[in-house]
Amino acid sequence: MAGLIPRQFIDDLIARTDIVDLIDSRVKLKKAGKSYVACCPFHGEKSPSFHVSQDKQFYHCFGCGASGNVISFLMEYDRLDFVDTIEELASLYNLDVPREESNDNQKTAQQYSIEKQQKLDYYELMSQVSQFFIQQLKTNKNSEAVVEYLKNRGLSGEIAKRFGIGYSPDDWQVVLDKFCKVNGILNTQRQAQLLDTGVLIKNEKGRIYDRFRHRVIFPIRDRRGRVIGFGGRVIDDSTPKYLNSPETPIFHKGFELYGFFEAKQANRDLKRLLVVEGYMDVVALAQHGVSWAVASLGTSTTSEQIQLMFRNTSEIICCYDGDRAGRDAAWRTLQNSLPQLKDGRQIKFMFLPDGEDPDSMIRQLGEQEFVALVDQAMPLSQFLFDNLISQVEMDSEDGRSKLANLALPMVNSISDGVFQQMMKEKLAKYLGMEASSLERFIQAEPESPVKTKRKKASRGSIVRQAIGILVQHPNLAMTLDGMPRLDQIKLKGTELLQQLIDEVHQQPTINAAQLLERWRGKDEYNALLKLASWQHDVVDENLQSHFVDTIVQIINKHLELRLEQLAHKSRVEGLTSEERQEYAQLIANEQ
User: Fold this and answer.
1) How distant, in Å, are the alpha carbons of 412, 452, 455 from that of 447?
2) At a CB cut-off of 8 Å and minimum separation 6, what does 99 contact?
3) What is the DSSP string of 290-338?
4) Per-residue confidence (pLDDT) for residue 452, from 0 to 100
5) What is the DSSP pairing of strand 215-221 with strand 50-53?
6) In the prediction, which pLDDT does 164 show?
7) CA 20 to 30 Å from 468, out of 32, 132, 251, 323?
8) How far is 15 from 478, CA to CA, in rounded Å?
9) Is it true that the peptide bond before 240 is cis, omega within 30 degrees of 0?
């Protein structure tokens, strides 16, 4: 098992990375008082509720509750696991991630390391299976027919190599035998891994066999180029035509795009992305010079996929069949894209003639004419209003009222800005009214349940208040010299409070983001996240005195409860000599 990442290295990465700079490189922030704000990247919203604190190196959304430090943001925004996030941050500074041996008391870090190693095993195994499929394309007895099929589709050996295209033999267990048996003995651990990654499949009777058989194989790579799944296409009239990997620990199709890694490799600066439906479409387009196409691994493009594309380009063109199914898929994509639209971002829609697909079109037209068609793609606004208007009778008041009811929620889901204003004006024109009049209806639209107003967190217990202040301002722990330890106090939360104080004393320069990171993966982590964004309303100049007073109140509360306990025991069963001395001392302190 790989060693653990030293805590000091993680702290150093957090200290090196300004959370404002990192988030601003992905989500444009605006200065607002002491914070920076933006529309939340984790849920669709119209008005900014996402706040980033440079002082605390912490972010929090008052709409959906997302919060954390720079590591949390990368894990959530880039869909990385913990160790991948550390490696991503380290790469920004050209640093190698060190490893150290685990200790028994490092349970959380140990668990991360175990999970990381499991994923590394999956990635390595998928790479080996992919190489096996590539080799089979060259050497299998059926390879000539497969190669001829690919040539007939206009693909060269070079493009097949770029996309790692392979062949899965017409055999029920060639992969099972290759990777799970040594001298006829079954390796059950490897078999379980191939089942986990979807390369093998188990039927209702418990039989295990190869999922992909007699198919051209298209490896699906993540944004780092690792093979995470496969798509298989038949070379004859068999069904199903396409067979895809299921959801696995390393493959979530709603978050990935086929060909995205290859498009990034071929285009240092992605000016736009063309979204198509099939693997072969992506490969054929690349063969003919359109190296900026991806496939959405489904009938419509998800919100997460749109977010991924907009992180890398400002223009997306979605290409669909012109039939009813294609237009329905395009409409679902449009609905998913509205909350992601901001000024400077464009989504267009391109519909192909019946019976045509991008593969056949570019072979007929060539790159230049095909790209000219892409340039003529329909703007999102046109597709949206054309679709809605087709559902109503525009020559009646009732019809125009229905259009307003259909369109208003969609326009309202677009982020504030020039584009949203243009959509309002376009809708007002269709309704035959002034945009200023329409504004009243839009403002009256109810907010989505997730877009809640900013509320103050409940003050809670005195211990909770102390933890909330300390986790936001760790340096306050250094003001408690001479005070008794709190972990002997029998009040809920005092043990955690003392642990936080101890962490600060061990590293007096620790900041809020680093302190929070100590608890990632532990039971207390979510509670600490909430307290890190708690609005305590204590002005900076009063923080130290307020915090010390709070600790004193905790100690006094403990002493009061202890006095009551001893008084009760004295009346019921009597006290020991030590308890009588303690009781007398507590009474004296009360006077």
Assistant:
1) 9, 8, 15
2) 2, 3, 4, 5, 6
3) ---EEE-SSSS--HHHHHHHHTT-SEEEEEEESSHHHHHHHHHHHHHHG
4) 41
5) unpaired
6) 96
7) 32
8) 20
9) yes
Name the residue among 99, 114, 116 with its Cα closest to residue 7: 99
Q: How far is Cα 221 from Cα 206, in angstroms, rounded to an integer?
A: 30
Q: In whole angstroms, what is the distance from residue 233 CA to residue 216 CA? A: 5
Name the token pair of 457: 């967190």
For the domain made up of 260-385, give the CATH fold: Dna Topoisomerase Vi A Subunit; Chain: A, domain 2 (3.40.1360)
Q: Which residues contact 416 (CB under 8 A, 6 or more apart)?
A: 39, 46, 47
Pick from 225, 217, 215: which is nearest to 129 by CA? 217
Average pLDDT of every residue of the chain: 84
Fold of the domain built from segment(s) 391-444: Pheromone ER-1 (1.20.50)
* Segments of the chain scoring below 70 in pLDDT: 1-3, 100-117, 439-460, 482, 487-488, 562, 566, 579, 582-583, 585-591
Q: Tell me how crowded residue 224 is: count the other CB atoms within 10 A of its CB.
A: 12
Closest by Cα among 439, 430, 388 to 410: 388
What are the backbone angles phi and psi of residue 353, rounded to the nearest 5°?
-60, 155
273-276 vs 293-295, strand pairing mode:
parallel
Domains 260-385 and 462-590 fall in the same CATH topology: no
What pTM, to 2 d.p., does this model score?
A: 0.68
- CATH code linked to domain 462-590: 1.10.860.10
Name the amino acid, one letter, at 387.
N
CATH 3.40.50.300 at 117-251, yes or no: no
Say what the pLDDT of residue 446 is: 44
Residue 127: the pLDDT is 95
